[in-house]
Each structure stands twice: as C-alpha cells, then as structure tokens.
Amino acid sequence: MGLFDAIGGRRKLKAPAPDRLFAITTAYVGLESAHGITTRGSAAIVFQPLATGDFEQIVADMEAVLRGTGEETGSTVETHDDAFGYRWMVIRDPDVDDLAVGINAVSDQLELDGFGDRLLCAVFAFQDAKGAPIYFIYNYKRGAWYPFSPTGPTPDAQQRSTEQELRLRAIVGAELPIEPEVSRWFPLWGIPI
C-alpha cells in the first residue's frame, strides 16, 4: 500500500489465493452428507468480455478445451450473455470436482493472458432437500465465497432468504473462506444455471 492509498483511505487487497476456488469441493462433502444439500450439476464463470480479437480467441480456445476434456469427463459447456453485458460460461457436470477444475481452467487462462481484471465471479448451483436453489458465489476480486439463497416464486422474482444464507455460512464457515462483510454478499438475479 502506498502513501497516497493510506491518505485516501484506500487499502490494497491481497490477490486471492488460487486454491480457494477448490475449497468448494471439500465443503460439498459436508453439505451433502450432513445437510442433504446436493449439486444441481452446474457451475458458471462470469466475466466481462472485451470486443477484441485476442480476448474472443482466448474465450473460444477455452470453450474448445472444455468441450475436449468434457468428452472424457461428461462435462458440457455453453455461454450466455446477460442484460448487464457479462458473459456466463456454464459448465454442466454431476461431479463438483469436475466443475471446479473447469472453472479454474478458464479463470487461470484469463489471468495468464492479462485479463484477470475482467473476472467477476464463479457460481456453483446446489439445492436443499426440498429442491430450493442455493448458490455459492466466489468473488475473484475478494478471494472469498458467500451463499446466495433466492426465494422468489420465479428465478427473476428478486427475493432472498438472508436467514438461510447466514445458516449456510455457519455450516461451511470452517471449510470455505467466507466473505466476512455480509454487505458484500451481492445477489445475482436470473442465474442461468
């Protein structure tokens, strides 16, 4: 942190540890066995695309790699652009480990090619014993996870259960690096997974 950052009240965030993304695989074991929370077989990496040839080529190459490895693992990949200009690269696979590996491959490549600042988050889809959706969101800039529990009658009905999210934090807090500032648990409406 520099002198001007200190004077201006800004603090420099440490770069997130890359292994924090994989913490979801360990946390999932407890979620499933002790709490009946199961995977919905999908995850997504969300990033802000650039309209440049090299960026589009990197994304196309990553899709091709994921499709190629998906032939062995059973994973599929698709992309969606949302109304806010973000691209969702969605991976579908019943194995949470395969989902984490796929998401990590895309984020690593974007980082290596100098586009790490374009990464928004990774989203893993789960459901409780009653089939209600639960998402765990990994914020790349903060290097931390947080739960998101939408409760509306439709995916776009913008309602969430803060109580459920706090329960989920208590359940996985020892295994998953949770964002300590609850005010940074941003909802993502209209998740396509």
Any overview of this molecule?
Strands 2-3-1-4-5-6 form a six-stranded antiparallel beta sheet. It has 193 residues and is α+β, with helices and mostly antiparallel strands. The chain has a single domain, classed as Alpha-Beta Plaits (2-Layer Sandwich). 32% of the residues are buried. It has five helices and six strands; from the N terminus they run ααβαββαβββα. The protein is globular, with a radius of gyration of 17 Å.
Note the main sheet. 6 strands, antiparallel
How many DSSP helices?
Answer: 5
Topology, number of strands: 6
> Whole-number radius of gyration?
17 Å
Number of spatially distinct domains = 1
CATH third-level topology = Alpha-Beta Plaits
Percent of residues in helices: 25-40%
- Shape annotation: globular
Structural class: alpha+beta
* Overall pLDDT metric: 88
Topology (SSEs and partners):
Elements: H1 3-8, H2 23-35, E1 38-47, H3 53-73, E2 76-81, E3 87-92, H4 96-112, E4 119-127, E5 133-139, E6 144-148, H5 162-172
Antiparallel strand pairs: 1-3, 1-4, 2-3, 4-5, 5-6
Helix pairs in contact: 3-4
Question: What is the structure about, briefly put?
Answer:
With 193 residues, this protein is an alpha+beta fold. The chain is built from 5 helices and 6 strands; from the N terminus they run H-H-E-H-E-E-H-E-E-E-H. It has one domain: Alpha-Beta Plaits (2-Layer Sandwich), CATH 3.30.70.
Task: Output the keywords.
Alpha-Beta Plaits, 6-stranded antiparallel beta sheet, 6 strands, globular, 193 residues, disordered N terminus, alpha+beta
